[in-house]
């Protein structure tokens, strides 16, 4: 809201509140020029105006949050307006009233317990209570991995008055090494079982190597070996259900690739268990 004032210059205004005011250059008619056509004569003049922000409270900003509105699009802009209003209230209106109160202040004299005279203090200059706005800040909760840490129920808070956020970080303690090792062991066993039965890429396709698949390969290879057909071709079904023509020797190579991977997997797992197992097991298929 723009309000005209009686000030004639910005320098007439207390420097503590001068930034709320501005010069507004206007134009007015002071007469008319005579001639064939009457034309107005104008002059510029300056009015000192007060830029009074819209009255928005922190309750208004909080209401946006209760309504489930977007932080960036609605809650934060409303909070910024509420901050501007509080700043004006405290540092302009209350400041001016404080000057009056200080000028009119008459100390009261009382006698203390020690018999000495005690004078009441003059009114304190009003200041902004930051807790009011911070109660509306966006709370950012930092997560933690409960597999590795135990939360003791307390939090650390980091306030950012520039971004209007409060980062809420749980105070945690790392779990004992043996607990983490057991967690990693269970995860490693599950991963080991998953890798063991995962598809194998060979001959340009992925092939399934579950127990039933390996049994089928054994039956097929026994048949080919009994009939001296290992160099002959047959049809095998890839993991994507596409029929692929392979020699029986190539089917044997699928089994061999499975066995080679299994050996690598078990060796890497064994090496990992010999350590402290404080980091997850990772299989490197190289």
Account of the 3D structure:
- With 286 residues, this protein is of the alpha+beta class.
- It has 3 domains: 2-51, no CATH class; 58-104 and 122-174, no CATH class; 177-273, no CATH class.
- Helix content is 38%, strand content 27%.
- The protein is built from 6 helices and 12 strands.
- It has helices at 58-66, 71-103, 130-134, 177-196, 211-226, 248-273; strands at 2-4, 21-33, 39-51, 109-111, 117-119, 138-141, 149-160, 165-174, 200-202, 205-207, 233-237, 243-247.
- The protein has a 3-stranded antiparallel β-sheet with strand order 1-3-2, with no helix packed on it.
- The model has no long low-confidence stretch (mean pLDDT 94).
Provide tags for this entry:
286 residues, alpha+beta, 3 domains, 3-stranded antiparallel sheet, 3-stranded mixed sheet, 12 strands, 38% helix, DUF4376 domain-containing protein
The neighbouring-strand order within the major sheet is 1-3-2
Shape: elongated
For the biggest sheet, the summary is: 3 strands, antiparallel
β-strand percent reads 25-35%
Q: Averaging pLDDT over every residue, what do you get? A: 94
Number of helices: 6
Radius of gyration: 41 Å
Count of all domains: 3
Q: How many DSSP-defined strands?
A: 12
What structural class do helix, strand and pairing data support?
A: alpha+beta
- Poorly predicted sequence stretches spanning 5 or more consecutive residues: none
Kindly state the percentage of residues in helix. 25-40%
Distance between the termini: 71 Å
Protein name: DUF4376 domain-containing protein
Task: Please give a quick description of this structure.
By secondary structure, this protein is α+β, with helices and mostly antiparallel strands.
């Amino acid at each position: 809201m723009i309000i005209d004032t009686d000030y004639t210059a910005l320098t007439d205004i207390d420097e503590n509140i001068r930034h709320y005011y501005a010069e507004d250059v206007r134009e007015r008619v002071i007469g008319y020029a005579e001639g064939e056509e009457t034309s107005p004569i104008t002059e510029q003049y300056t009015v000192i105006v007060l830029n009074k922000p819209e009255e928005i409270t922190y309750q208004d900003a909080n209401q946006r949050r209760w309504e489930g509105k977007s932080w960036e699009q609605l809650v934060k802009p409303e909070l910024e307006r509420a901050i501007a209003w509080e700043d004006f209230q405290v540092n302009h209106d209350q400041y001016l009233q404080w000057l009056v109160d200080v000028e009119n202040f008459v100390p009261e004299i009382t006698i203390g317990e020690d018999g000495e005279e005690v004078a009441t203090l003059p009114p304190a200059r009003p200041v902004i209570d930051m807790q009011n706005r911070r109660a509306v800040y966006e709370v950012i909760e930092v997560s933690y991995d409960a597999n590795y840490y135990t939360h003791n129920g307390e939090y650390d808070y980091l306030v950012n008055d520039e971004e209007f956020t409060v980062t809420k970080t749980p105070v945690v303690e790392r779990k004992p090494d043996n607990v983490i090792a057991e967690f990693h062991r269970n995860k490693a066993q599950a991963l080991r079982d998953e890798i063991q039965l995962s598809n194998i890429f060979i001959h340009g396709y992925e092939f399934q190597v579950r127990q039933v698949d390996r049994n089928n390969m054994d039956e097929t290879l026994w048949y080919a070996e009994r009939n001296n057909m290992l160099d002959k071709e047959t049809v095998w079904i890839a993991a994507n259900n596409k029929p692929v023509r392979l020699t029986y020797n190539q089917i044997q190579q699928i089994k061999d690739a499975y066995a080679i991977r299994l050996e690598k997997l078990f060796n890497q797992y064994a090496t990992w268990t010999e350590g402290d197992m404080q980091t997850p097991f990772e299989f490197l298929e190289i």
